[in-house]
Protein: Epoxide hydrolase
Organism: Algimonas ampicilliniresistens
Amino acid sequence: MNYDNPTLVPVDGFQIATYANGPEDGTPLVLIHGWPELAYSWATTVPALADAGYRVIAYDLLGFGKSSAPRGVEHYGMANLIGHLEAVLNHYGINQAILCGHDWGGIILWHAVRILKHRTIAAISISTPHVGRAPVDPMTIFEKRFGTEHYFIEFRDRTDAVEALYNSDSDAFFRMMFRASPNGLKLTPELTHLPTRFESYLRAGAPDNGDMVVTPEQRAVYSDAYQNTGFLPGMNYYRNTTANWEMAQGLSTTIEVPSLMISPEDDFFLPPSTTDSMVKTVPDLTRVTIPNCGHWAMWDKPEAVNAALLSWLNQRGF
């Protein structure tokens, strides 16, 4: 995957940076990254899919990498994000595609396969389950369950302070984030307090404990990119949680396309058990667990992720 030379797709007065690989006549497969990530997060995935004959399109979401990065929170609502995905499909002349998302890309994915069902062949999510619309604003749930230091709440209520904190040392931020997950670690409120944890990490000298899932060179791609965009655009995705919840009212919870759910075994934020309810809302569902793998699955266990992807795609004849 060549991350240096994107094709820029215009939409809504902005530009979305895209990266196309594989034969032009191959089945289209669009990759949607998460936070705090980039299209580059698929660097270990794209070659395997392209070599298997798929037309692979990865792109930097608005606010990330080489895409435009407006500061206004209003640009990052779900309707806008799905519009950007549709613009990418249109630019490449793709009528229907397989959609694959990780982390926040999975949230976008599960909305897109319902709103753009007519343009979706199949859905693949890594880490992020499809869940029904919460009975109340999810922000209320997060605050009650995890406290006011939960990062969703901090991004909303202490936006300027958290932005300044993260921007103060982007490389240290990724040294803290891109680590392997200890086997059996359970989610506690403190683990969701990302700004507070980062403050403590900086006070400790931002140590590299040797459990990184990326090399220093790979990490530098992220820290360099975020030095250019800053962290506010990515935070704006979370700041739209209430608006996205309101937008989803009346949207069917049923996923009507064949779907693959890949769960890293040691993802303590989104463990495999969070996918259990999907058997009721995704009639054509395959679930796969990647052993000894944390949230950053494409870096942590790339061969296992690629094997799961290609096995399912081959079995389904896509």
Notes: The chain has a mean pLDDT of 96. The radius of gyration is 18 Å.
